[in-house]
Design a protein that fits this description.
Pathway: Organic acid metabolism; glycolate biosynthesis; glycolate from 2-phosphoglycolate: step 1/1. The chain is built from nine helices and eight strands. It has 222 residues and is an alpha/beta fold. The strands form two sheets. Strands 5-4-1-6-7-8 form a six-stranded parallel β-sheet, sandwiched between helices. A two-stranded antiparallel sheet has the order 2-3.
């Protein structure tokens, strides 16, 4: 059975917070509101998705009709993000070298993200790394998204792997819940906005830097 590692995308392989926040502020501007989100301060919210950013903006503006604004703004946010998807985005140090080592060792590698599939593909293409992953499951690939286990299982299957010899690498509680739902180990990165606070989610492993990722693989995929 092929060993498999499935990665989250935003906040795990790449720091996409700058472009996500810019897209959220653009959507707010198109709806007649002042920008509400700040890079650095709101990165953790950005990694939770577009609706989370708009909800935070609504709270800051004390909007009475918050949900209506979120539903109106979400398509505007996605459109703005697609127009300028990689201006500020960068891969985390050592991420693709770690992926390369996995592939060289015969480990299947895929992505399971809550970014819409089309935008995820667009971003991987712009970063020049699409050919490094055997699968990609996005938020809208299936009827359900993380933390439901189905997208994770689909990512493993599409990569040619076996669920019982796989684990998920992520950065948020959503990833931790997904791994639990799928019955697989989880490794959480500590270089995101919340730092080592992710240890409170009790993952099977922590990733402080991708240079040391081989140790995690040896631990979780013996």
């Amino acid at each position: 059975m092929t060993r498999t590692v499935i990665f989250d995308l935003d906040g795990t392989l790449a720091d996409t917070s700058g472009d996500l926040i810019a897209a959220a502020n653009m959507a707010l501007s198109e709806m007649g509101f002042a920008p509400q989100l700040n890079r650095g301060q709101d990165d953790a919210t950005a990694f939770r998705g577009g609706r989370a950013m708009l909800r935070l903006a609504a709270e800051r503006m004390a909007l009475a009709e918050a949900e209506a604004m979120i539903e109106r703004g979400y398509p505007l946010l996605l459109d703005a993000y697609g127009r300028d998807i990689d201006r500020h985005t960068s891969l985390y140090p050592g991420a693709m070298a770690a992926v390369g080592r996995l592939r060289a060792a015969g480990v299947a590698v895929g992505i399971c993200t809550n970014k819409p599939e089309g935008l995820a593909i667009q971003l991987l293409d712009r970063l020049g790394i699409s050919d490094q992953f055997a699968s990609l499951i996005g938020a809208d690939t299936l009827p359900t998204r993380k933390p439901d286990a189905a997208p994770y299982r689909a990512a493993v299957d599409a990569a040619g792997g076996a669920l019982e010899r796989s684990f998920l690498v992520g950065d948020t509680e959503t990833d931790r819940k997904t791994a639990r739902a799928a019955g697989v180990p989880c490794a959480l990165v500590t270089f995101g906005p919340t730092g080592r606070a992710v240890a409170e989610l009790e993952p099977e492993a922590l990733v402080d830097h991708f240079d040391a990722f081989d140790t995690v693989v040896a631990q979780l995929l013996p």
